[in-house]
Amino acid sequence: MRFLVRDRILGIGDDYWIEDDHGNKVFLVDGKAMRLRDTFELKDTEGRVLIDIRQKMFALRDTMVIERGGEPLATVRRKRLSLLRNHYRVALADGGTELDVSGRILDREFAVEYDGELLAVISRRLLTVRDTYAVDVVREDADPALLIAVAVCVIHLAEKERED
Questions:
Q1: This prediction's pTM
Q2: Of the candidates 37, 64, 89, 141, which lies 20 to 30 Å from 147 by C-alpha distance?
């Protein structure tokens, strides 16, 4: 499954649609402005909130929390010892599952893996549409909304780190 994200409008307070590879709107990322912490909502085409994404207020490292239905789903933070390229860990709420996100986050060229198995590839390399990147969900049983939320989180954290 391929989803297309228009990159140029990514930011807090901005809303943007994520489309499938046929141009159909699938998800809306609703950035919430004027909040104490960075907040996004991932909604379906009917306007129902599928996933909430919030910056964790009190953490040693920048951390984003992904929730579904008010329940924690995952926590996203930069890996401590990552010297050569951007590397993030996604700890799922089940306590034992970790996703690994690595690559050139700011260039929109990275992958999401679980236990060495590829779940999704985020890339703008093969697209001709300017300021757009693709989220290719590789595994059929993967949760596309969660993987898109992970991509939104790591890009937001990387951009925030670059600003600091």
A1: 0.86
A2: 37
* Residue 145 three-state SS: helix
DSSP annotation string for 66-81: EEETTEEEEEEEE-SS
Phi, psi of 81 (to 5 degrees): -105, 80
Q: Which residues contact 36 (CB under 8 A, 6 or more apart)?
A: 57
Closest by CA position to 61, among listed 22, 102, 89: 89
**Residue pair 104/110 in contact by the 8 Å Cβ criterion:** yes
Integer Cα distance of 130 and 15 in angstroms: 18
Return d(Cα 6, Cα 131) in angstroms, integer: 6
From CA 42, how far away is CA 152, in angstroms rounded?
10
- Tell me the mean pLDDT per 10 residues along the chain, length 164: 73 76 91 69 94 79 89 89 74 90 91 94 78 88 93 87 72
Which residues are within 8 A (CB) of 162 and not within 5 positions of it... i.e. 6 or more apart?
Answer: 106
